[in-house]
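F.,

This is the one I mentioned.
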């Protein structure tokens, strides 16, 4: 097996320390698209991670089997061994590191198979690097046991462990769809989230994917929390903001 691991980030000063504890967080990127692989390695390195890169399934499998990674970014479509098989074999071998799979947007079945195979999260291509980085941070936090389960935005507080939401200390009753929507917005606090992204990340495939459905849920949420907190950004989506102004 042609095995080569390119290691980046060692000896360089991390711009932003991602780990809540000591030491660098080590990430493996398994992606056969060389351009994307390079972009991922570069973005992760800039974010302060120590990054190894593999370009096919066998190489990736071997590295994940032998090296202590804190997290793996795993493409599903890989030469020599597909990503799902790689993941299944790791899990069978009790390799428990968090794995975020990269799936093709139109291959929804990959997400299902991937999550069933033991993926912790997925990102559909094409994706925004910022989103992947946020998902990585969440996984690293969770895995490190320093998980901050409370999300806060102004008077709103959401405990992801108990799925409880309070507004100025008073409980807010939400349906599961409303809860997931609010949790996503709170995770992405102060950023514009598109309807497509919400549909893509919140709801299962057989859910009515008409984006009007999202509007309906947004409307319901606005009745339960201060409505001005969820701003509609025309043509772009929504932004949850603690500022109650109208900018
Ligand atoms: Ca691929």
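My design for it:
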């Amino acid at each position: 097996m042609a095995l080569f691991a390119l290691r980046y980030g060692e000896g360089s000063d991390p711009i932003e320390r991602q780990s809540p504890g000591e030491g660098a967080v080590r990430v493996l990127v398994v992606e056969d698209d060389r351009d994307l692989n390079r972009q991922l390695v570069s973005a992760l390195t800039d974010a302060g991670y120590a990054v190894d890169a593999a370009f096919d399934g066998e190489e990736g499998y071997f590295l994940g089997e032998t090296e202590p990674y804190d997290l793996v970014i795993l493409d599903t479509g890989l030469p020599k061994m597909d990503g799902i098989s790689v993941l299944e074999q790791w899990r069978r071998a009790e390799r428990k590191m968090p794995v975020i799979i990269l799936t093709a947007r139109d291959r929804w079945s990959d997400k299902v198979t991937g999550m069933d195979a033991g993926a912790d999260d997925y990102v559909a291509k094409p994706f925004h690097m910022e989103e992947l980085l946020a998902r990585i941070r969440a996984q690293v936090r969770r895995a490190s046991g320093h998980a901050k389960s409370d999300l806060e935005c102004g008077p709103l507080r959401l405990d992801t462990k108990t799925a409880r939401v309070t507004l100025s200390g008073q409980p807010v009753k939400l349906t599961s769809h409303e809860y997931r929507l609010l949790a996503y917005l709170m995770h992405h606090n102060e950023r514009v989230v598109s309807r497509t992204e919400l549909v893509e990340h919140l709801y299962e495939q057989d859910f009515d994917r008409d984006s009007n459905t999202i509007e309906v849920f947004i409307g319901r949420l606005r009745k339960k929390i201060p409505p001005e907190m969820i701003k509609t950004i025309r043509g772009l989506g929504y932004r949850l903001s603690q500022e109650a102004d109208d900018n």
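Residues 1-23 have pLDDT under 50 and may be disordered.

Talk soon.
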